[in-house]
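Duplicate of #3305? Posting structure anyway:
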C-alpha cells in the first residue's frame, strides 16, 4: 500500500444546536434528499469529529450546512477552530461559507465573512436531487457569473453542488470564469448509478475536467442510495481520478451526514483501498496535497 504522509478531510460539517439555528435539522421527522436526519439531530463539534476519525486526519475543511444565519455559522466555525488549535488540533483548518449567489451582487454579503481568517471559499447549492430541486432558486447564468467573478477577485474558491439536469448550463457559465477555482461536491451527485447513468456521468464530468480550474470531491456518496455501496463508490472514484487526475481530486467524509450510513473507520478503509492503486506521489495528492493546495491550507 502506498505510504500516505497525511490525510485531509476536504468536506465535513460541524453544528452547535445551542448556538446556531439549522432549520433543516429542526424539522423533526422530515425526510430529506440525503435521508432522515433525526439520528444526527444533536451537537456535532470538534471533539465528536475527532472521535469519529480517531486521529487519522491532520486537517479538515468545514463546509456550510444550512444555518439560518450564515454569518453566525462562520463565527462559530472560527471559534471552534481557534479553540481546537489551542489543544493542538487543526479541525477545521478552513471554511467554505454560505453565500446567496442569486443576489445581483454578493459584495456586501461576503464582506463580514472575510473578517474571519478561516474563510477560503463559498457555497450556494444549485442542485440537491431531482425532487428537491423544484424548491430551489433557478440558476441565472449572468448573475452567477458576476458573483463567481467577484469571488475570484477575492482569491476565494467555490464549492459546486449540482445535479445532472444542471450540468450543461452550469458548465457553459463556468467556461466564462477560468480564474475561479471550483470544487465539484459529492462526485457531481450521481443519482442514476445504472450503467447508462454511469456512462452519461462520465461523459459530462469529462467536460468539466477540461476546465483546469475544476476539481472533484470524492465525497457524500451514500446520500444517493441512502446506504454505502463500496463497489459503486470505487467505480465512481476511480473513474473521477482517471478523468481529473490525482492532482485535482480530494476525499471528503461529508460527516456527520454520511454517518447515517457508514462509520468513519469503514469510510477511511475505503479511502486507503482506493489510494493503494496509485503511486506514492499520486496517493499523497489524493489524501492531502490536492485539498491543501486548493484551500490554501
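Output from current build:
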Amino acid at each position: 500500500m502506498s505510504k500516505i504522509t497525511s490525510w485531509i478531510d476536504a468536506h465535513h460539517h460541524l453544528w452547535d444546536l445551542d448556538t446556531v439555528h439549522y432549520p433543516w435539522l429542526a424539522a423533526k421527522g422530515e425526510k430529506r434528499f440525503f435521508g432522515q436526519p433525526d439520528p444526527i439531530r444533536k451537537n456535532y463539534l470538534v471533539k465528536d469529529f475527532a472521535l469519529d476519525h480517531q486521529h487519522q486526519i491532520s486537517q479538515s475543511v468545514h463546509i456550510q450546512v444550512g444555518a439560518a444565519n450564515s454569518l453566525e455559522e462562520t463565527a462559530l466555525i472560527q471559534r471552534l477552530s481557534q479553540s481546537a488549535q489551542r489543544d493542538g488540533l487543526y479541525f477545521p483548518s478552513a471554511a467554505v461559507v454560505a453565500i446567496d449567489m442569486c443576489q445581483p451582487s454578493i459584495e456586501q454579503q461576503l464582506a463580514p465573512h472575510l473578517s474571519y481568517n478561516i474563510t477560503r471559499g463559498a457555497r450556494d447549492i444549485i442542485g440537491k436531487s431531482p425532487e428537491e430541486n423544484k424548491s430551489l432558486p433557478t440558476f441565472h447564468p449572468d448573475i452567477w457569473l458576476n458573483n463567481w467573478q467577484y469571488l475570484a477577485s477575492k482569491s476565494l474558491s467555490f464549492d459546486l453542488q449540482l445535479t445532472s439536469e444542471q450540468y450543461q448550463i452550469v458548465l457553459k457559465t463556468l467556461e466564462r470564469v477560468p480564474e475561479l477555482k471550483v470544487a465539484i461536491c459529492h462526485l457531481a451527485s450521481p443519482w442514476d448509478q445504472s450503467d447508462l447513468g454511469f456512462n452519461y456521468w462520465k461523459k459530462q464530468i469529462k467536460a468539466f475536467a477540461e476546465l483546469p480550474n475544476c476539481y472533484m470531491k470524492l465525497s457524500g456518496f451514500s446520500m444517493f442510495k441512502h446506504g454505502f455501496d463500496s463497489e459503486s463508490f470505487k467505480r465512481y472514484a476511480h473513474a473521477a481520478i482517471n478523468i481529473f487526475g490525482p492532482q485535482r481530486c480530494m476525499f471528503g467524509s461529508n460527516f456527520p451526514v454520511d454517518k447515517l450510513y457508514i462509520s468513519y473507520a469503514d469510510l477511511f478503509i475505503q479511502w486507503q483501498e482506493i489510494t493503494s492503486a496509485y503511486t506514492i506521489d499520486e496517493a499523497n495528492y489524493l489524501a492531502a496535497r490536492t485539498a491543501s493546495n486548493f484551500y490554501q491550507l
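Confirmed duplicate; merging threads. Residues 167 and 252 are 21 Å apart (CA to CA). The first strand starts at residue 8 and ends at 12.
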